[in-house]
Amino acid sequence: MKKISYIIFGYVLIYSFIVFFYKGELRRDTIEILSITGSLFIVWASYLTYKKATARLIFWKILFIGFCLNFVSNILHIVSEKFDILEIMNGRNILFLLVYIFMLLAIYYFLYETIGHLNICQLLVDSIIMIGFSLSLISKLFLKKFEYNFACFNYESNIILIFMILNFLILIGAFTIYQINIKTKILKKASLIRTLGFLIYTISDLGYTYTILKKQNIGECNPLFEFLWQLGLIIVVFSGLYEVYNIKRNFRRRVSIPENLGIRFPMGMIFLYVLILSLNFRNITIVFIATLIIVLRIFLTKHVNIYVTNEYLYKSYKDIGYQLTKKMEEISNLSLYLEKIVYERNIELSKKNIELNRLANIDCLTNLPNRRNCLNFLDNLISTKKSDGEFILIFIDLDRFKSINDWYGHDIGDKVLLEFVKRLKNYLSPIDFLARLSGDEFIVIIDNIGQEKIIKEMACQIIKLFQNPFVIGENKIICTLSIGISMYPKNSQDRLELMKYGDIALNSAKEDGKNRAKIYNKEMEKQSLKNLELENKIYRAIEKNEFKIYYRPQMSLENMRISSIHAVIRWKNDELGFISSEVFNRIAEESGIIIEVGEYIIDKLGKEIKYLKEKYKEKITVGISVSPKQFHAGDIVGTLKKTMKKYDIEGERIEIGITESCSIKNEEKTLERLKELKHIGITVILDKFGIGYSSFNNLKVYPLDSIKISKKLINNIESNQEDYNILKTVVEIGKTLNLDIIAEGLNDLNEVKILKNLGCGKIEFIQELIPLKTLEEKYLEI
Fold first, then answer.
1. 3-state class of 739 per DSSP?
2. How far is the C-alpha of 394 from the C-alpha of 501, rounded, in Å?
3. Which residues are CB-neighbours of 428 under 8 A, at least 6 positions away?
4. Which range is least confidently modeled, 49-58, 126-135, 678-687?
5. What percent of the chain has pLDDT over 70?
6. Which terminus has fewer CB within 10 Å in the chain: N or C?
7. What is the sign of the dihedral through the CA atoms of 242, 247, 250 and 255?
8. Strand-pair category, 762-764 with 475-477
């Protein structure tokens, strides 16, 4: 906006200098250039205002059209003066006339838009007075002095008369607009600027008309009038830009009473009144009539104001009453609506509470009571029984259920659970309580039973129910059960103790090989406490260096020399002595400390491998078996890399043995991990082949170096032809796949010969378990 102001100021300054002070040869040409430039700027500014305005768009659109015609008429005016073409001059006059008409249309369209905010009576009174004053001035200034011109009623006189009337109408409209906007700060300033522009334009045009009538011809236009025309229109468009850039949003007046009410005298009326007095101060009659009109206007305005104010107050009172009635109805409807909403919400909350209560007490998958529900039921049962009645808690756990989930997926696992519940429900009576405690752990509470013989028979029948496989789609899945039983009141009358004893009995059944039932007794608790004590001691065994490494020698059947050794971990506790490896491995696996123990053993083993590397020229490989949990959950590859770097040993000196149970947990992960081991040069052995989940497919899929045949597969090869044939097949398949064959254990020399003839490369003496020093003395230092 500042830039535009500076441009306008510079333009006016240059134009005024040329008009008032410059008398050179190029004066007329410069004025024409400035006139065209000014007209073009007026067109651009009016278009910009029209595009950016948020109100009175039609007002500015009409003005924009008028200013475009003004630009064209100025060009025609210059051409007509240059070439003295009469037809162009007539066309120019018509265009100038259209410019006036469009300006007048814009002003009175603005008044039409605003008429809703005005008092019509007051507006009519003021308009009649101002029109009368205007006609009086026209008569005084023009008609009486130039009666001859107007008496002829030729083309030029008619055009002049129309221009005079239009000028006065534009001036009246401009003053009226200013008077309307006098109550609004920004609009008042913009309207004042706009009125000033129209005033300059119309007065300059009236002056030009006066000059024409005085000379009695339409000659060359005075540069002063051209300057004032351009200045007036520039001020008009500047008012629009000022309004657009100062009102950031659509400005809508919200007034309580008509805007022209209470205004004593419109500015236009005062201006015309003063002008009439100055021109007719000697004519007492005209002065008296004009003054009388002003006095009557004051009197009428006073009564109009009173009437309109009363009318407005009455309408406002009715409107307020109507609004209050409407609001009361809305409040009443809202109250009814809120009551309905509250009622519906209460019903919804009630349903949700019922659903939440169900979800809090029912297992979502099986629709059985959950642990929370079970505990409440058990508390209620104990409170009703006291010490008189009997009942039992049967804890049931699905064996290998995690493996089923891992192998077949959780969707199949869920279906297995549902089939399990279906079979069990069919066996139990309707009064027996069945609940799901956790993933694959269930509990059955049977009332009025206490004889152990009956309890054992019932448990055996439940186990037999699940000897047949579950048929899930195309899969036949065998899933056995382990059962632990606690008895009320024999074992305890406390709910927590009954739950604990049932869980201890269940763990005991699992430790004894699964697929069986156990009734709680105190020995089980002692064993459970012992296991817990062992678990605690395992955590301290690393600090105390209680884990020892023993070795089994592996002999090459080709040269009957020791080529490799297999490391076995033994735990010797200060208090308990040597702990069985089966017990130690089971507890370490369950507690998860097997990973930490494995990392500690590998580090210790790396130190002894370095010792063997530095002492003996022959390469002696050292093997160690890792558990499935250590293989998958731990960072076995990272641990081996760290150990190899620490002790400067090659991967080819280390053999890692895995069992086929590793692949059951996650075949893809097993394959990926084995490839990582092979990448760092580790020798991979498939351990205990021939028992458990042995699969010839694994020999083809996994990147193995050797297979170690289980002792159980070798024991009867001399006496049992089937065992011999199986062993022969395994060896042949291994050799076909370029795998080294290692056989576990020996009974006599005949077995050695048989194994050698079949193609076994090594044998491992599993009966011999010795420390490194003894191994050196017996086998390596010969």
1. coil
2. 11
3. 434, 444, 446
4. 126-135
5. 81
6. C
7. negative
8. unpaired
